[in-house]
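Need the bound structure for fe (ii) ion, inputs here:
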Amino acid sequence: MGSETPLTLPFIDFTNLDQITKNEAWNLTKSQVHRALEEFGCFEASFADIPPELQTSVYDSLQELFDLPLQTKLKNRSTKPFHGYVGQYPMVPLYESMGIDDAPIPEKAESFTKILWPQGNPKFSKTVQELSIKLSKLDQIVRRMVLESLGLEKYMDEHMGSTNYLLRVMKYKGPETDDSKLGLNSHTDKNIVTILHQNQVDGLEVQTKSGDWIKVQPSPNSFVVMIGDSLYAWTNGRLHSPYHRVMMTGDKARYSIGLFSIPKAGYMVKAPPEVVDEEHPLIFKPFDHVEFLQFYYTEEGQRAQSALKTYCGV
Ligand SMILES: O=C(O)CCC(=O)C(=O)O
Ligand SMILES: [Fe+2]
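Answer from helper R.:
Posting the output first, comments after.
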């Protein structure tokens, strides 16, 4: 934990990549992505800007959403753990979140909206769906680069087709104190890739491999890209999946948005033989992500230092 530990995330510019081609810019960016994900499991990305109007309408919409009465928010239910409304937890009283499965698909964004606003709210569903599409493009570019940089191109179609998207929207109340209060516990994400965007209130912290916490201060037009345990497992540990948490101070509410690419139920996450050798013995047995999530939310799963290792470590 020397003084050389960089306390900012790597920053990667994606604005020059308007198409997926193997030009120089693509290869350069790809090697930056690979290095950042090996070392930090995370980076800040500038991507095709979210126009200011979309940003304003996203965060206006989120405020409107979380201002709904609790009994209305509770209608956001899901059979999968952590896909519906989450909140009112004594451990993290500042935190609330909701989830929209397959948010890039217009009918899915619309049906979520109808549940919460039976009279309709076209502005909300359009905003959420447009944003999800933009974020899913970045997810796909990053994953394409990851597979290419590990020489796993032949799995591209299978890998890309093996996931669904979940858009989660989060609100963290300001604790109205100067000392920081826990907004969200330290955890690793369990999915493939997570892409985060926030309003102008900071709070996300990402842990380095040596245990230091990086306070993430993304610019309004940038995104945080992070690896989850499923991609850590699929790449047999070649990429890091970092612990992160949210710490809040002051009186402003923080709103954030996360697009999660998640292995489909029934798909077995299994490291390809190309990433397993004597130097890199297999870390995890093949697993079904949805079944793993069910374990993660049991008492044993919550107690485990690494739920995935406990669940299917070799
Ligand atoms: O709000 C954030 O920036 C992070 C949220 C997060 O880590 C999560 O939902 O898994
Ligand atoms: Fe997370």
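Comments: Residues 11-273 form a domain with the Jelly Rolls fold (CATH 2.60.120.330). The first strand starts at residue 11 and ends at 13.
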